[in-house]
Amino acid sequence: MKAMVLKAPRPVEENPLELTELPLPEPGADEVRIEVLACGVCHTDLHTVEGELPLPSRGARPCAPIVPGHQIVGVVESMGANVSRFRPGQRVGVTWLYSSCGECDYCRRGLENLCDSARFTGLHADGGYAKYMVVPAAYAFPIPPSIPDVQAAPLLCAGVIGYRSLRLCEVGAHGRAPGQRLGLYGFGASAHVTIQVARHWGCQVYVFTRSEEHRQHALELGAEWVGGAEDEPPAPMDASITFAPAGWIVPRALARLRKGGTLAINAIHMSPIPEMDYSLIYGERTVRSVANLTRRDAEELLQLAAEIPIHTDVELYPLEEANAVLQRLKRAEVRGAAVLVHW
Q: What is the C-alpha to C-alpha distance for residues 325 and 334, in angstroms, rounded to an integer?
């Protein structure tokens, strides 16, 4: 099968992914093999490919080569002997969370995203930059029939992690009153889904981004106000989410957050947060990171996406152009989300 393989992390400008023929993966007893139809391209892929997110080690050596990609839509092609929840030909999605132990204190408390034994798609196990992949059946999700393949792909990480950020901010349906002001710092794949959920819940959304094209996109999706991270919005935020992996934004976001508000940092890798005055968090402001996702997050977001309905703006590329797509992502040139497809 065709796959774009990372043999060693390097800057994306050096085209680190190689088009390779790999053997067809065989599903284990509790796994399904999926024929990949579409795979979203995520900033986490960029961090993995460039080595900012270290590859796991086997002994003293990195766990490479690896096939990236964790926003996967495909059809069940074959199943292990113990699998009964899917049927051949059924359309399913795969997220960043590949598996968790199910037994630790975090898993028992519904926090499988924090499991110390969690494995992640495209990092610990081969992902969706390939024609086929295998995944534990318990970590695959039926895709609502109303959502097309390429529209569904960005929901499986960008959408789900944005939804979890809203939950942790206690936004809309998760606690705060309709009409609250929500700040979004950065406006890429995740934010363009998050704004649709927030608007559905009655939030006023304020978007901070340096890109004029992203500002226009935010206005088209119902943003109340757009500007840069250095700009002063017309009112303080009740809650905010940072999507850009830039630590310098954190104190600026806190300075625009009202007392009692929450700032959620939606980043798996981030530059250092600068030293800041205590006054920025005084007044019972909360700063919290957003780490990975749970299966509950994925199930709820997919259902909500069909109900709203959420529309993801996508740019489509053939699998072979994965290096070029990651370069566009790094330069913030993607409008909405980029998706690799098999043509």
A: 8
User: What is the Cα 145 distance to its own chain's centre?
Assistant: 21
User: pLDDT tens for residues 188-226?
Assistant: 999 999 999 999 999 999 999 999 999 999 999 999 999
Tens of pLDDT, residue by residue over 251-304, are 999 999 999 999 999 988 899 999 999 999 999 999 999 999 999 999 999 999
User: Which domain CATH number covers 106?
Assistant: 3.90.180.10
Q: Taking Cα atoms as reference points, which of 19, 41, 129, 8 lies closest to residue 314? A: 41
Q: Which two structure tokens, joined as six digits, stand for 188?
A: 């890429």
Longest dimension (CA), the chain: 59
Same domain, 72 and 208: no
Joined tokens for residue 239: 């809650």
- The pTM for the full model equals 0.93
Residue 195 and residue 204: Cα distance in Å, rounded? 9
> Do residue 149 and residue 215 come from a single domain?
no
Alpha-carbon distance of 57 to 81, in angstroms, equals: 30
Distance CA 306, CA 262 (A): 28
As a whole number of angstroms, the distance between CA 130 and CA 22 comes to 9
- One-letter amino acid identity for 1? M
Q: Which residue has the tokens 């690896």?
A: 66
Helix (H, G, I), strand (E, B) or coil at 3: strand
